[in-house]
Amino acid sequence: MKRLLFFPILILSFSGNAQNVNIPDANFKAYLVANTQINTNSDTEIQITEANAYAGQIYCSSQSITDLTGIEEFTSLTTLDVAINQLTSLDLSNNVALTTLSCGTNPLGSLDVSSNVLLTRLYCNDNQLTSLDLTTNIALVDLICSGNQLVNLNLNNNTNLETLNAENNLLTALDLSNNSLIETVNVQDNSIATFTKGTNNNLLTFYATNNSLTTADFSDLPMLYTLSLQNSVLTSLNVQNCTNLTYLYITDNDLSTIDLSTNLNLENLLCASNNFTSFDFSGMQYFKEFIASNNQLVSVNIANGNNANMGTNYFKTDNNPNLTCIEVDDVNYSTTNWLNVDGTATFSLNCSNGVDENVMNELVVFPNPTKDVFTISSNEKINSIDIYNAMGKLVQTTNSATSTLTDFENGVYFISVNTEGGSIRSKIIKE
Question: Yes or no: is domain 362-430 CATH 3.40.50.2000?
């Protein structure tokens, strides 16, 4: 009789133990057991029934987890955040209800999300991924895969994609021809040599600094607001009909021309270290920043009626030795505030006629360098002389053709001579 009673008790006990989820990682198990929404009976184990029934979210980032075994039983899980752990593998083939996966900052060498067809958000940044297959993830809206070793990224099936951050990878090409809903793109620090756009009428921002583009067509993107293509090898760039373009950053390229005639809302242009020869911003009433050092400029018209909104550090045309005249709204304002220009450049209300030739030819500053006193000789009547230090600070204003630098330290100073024929800038050195 005792043997008949003992046998079913053993069977019942064995059956109860078999229902527990196998969770070998102590840190992962501790998180799950402590979560009362998962561990509904408040014991020291997670039962398979508890795992299967849980349709919520798991947030266990920064828990020093090395093994996620046991996650396969959470078949109704919708959100999983295991970022900043030590995971080398991740099997999510049973987690078919997942809509959000965050597994960034792990040493993952591979990631299979082919079974997770409901994914709308995937954050797998800062791993060691060399490939990423997203062909089945047609619902994907946000993708952050930066800081990996991806060579290719096929987004043809991801027609719902709105956000892409794939910076700091090894990508050589980017094709967005099927991504008509894309709004934000960040592919900085890659080796992209080919870019293919589509009808991306929602695209707002595109960051592609540090790539290998030689030509780029961004035309007919009506919502494009910010475009950054700095430090590449561009020789041709098309931004026609980007009527909303406000910020254009193209420093450190090989561009010599660019058509901005349809970009009337442009406010900021950073184009230093190229080969540009001329710019006309007269029709851009919102334009307020122009950084064009180290080019081949010979002509700049920035008389747009908005010069007063352009401060000292927002206008730079230094290292353009052939630029002698810059057309502006107010000569005095520009002379006072825009100090990052070559000594040979002058501001004028009308550069088509230029500054009076007599002023250009007959204005002489001597001796230069000087130890103290210097004299300015001009055929034109001198209205005023402003002297600025190397930091751009006005240190002296005078009406006298002879000035002294007695109270000033040795160094470089800039002189703005305002005459009836125009304004001339020159440089003087005190020894």
Answer: no
Provide the residue type at 251 as one letter: T
Backbone angles phi, psi at 340, to 5 degrees: -90, 60
Question: Tokens for 306?
Answer: 């908005």
Complete edge-to-edge strand list for the sheet that includes strand 364-366? 364-366, 373-377, 402-404
Q: Can you give the pLDDT at residue 375?
A: 84
Decide yes or no: CATH 3.40.1280.10 for domain 14-101: no
State the pairing for strand pair 299-301/325-327: parallel
Q: Could you give the angle at the alpha carbon of 283 between the alpha carbons of 279 and 284, nearest 5°?
A: 85
Question: How long a stretch of residues is the chain?
Answer: 431
Query: With the C-alpha atoms ordered 392, 397, 399, 401, is the resulting torsion angle positive or negative?
Result: negative
Could you read off the pLDDT of 271-291 as tens digits, one per residue?
999 999 999 998 899 999 999
Mean pLDDT of 113-131: 98
Residue type, 131: S
What predicted TM-score, i.e. pTM, was given to this entire model?
0.80
Domain range summary for the chain, segments of one domain joined by + = 14-101, 362-430
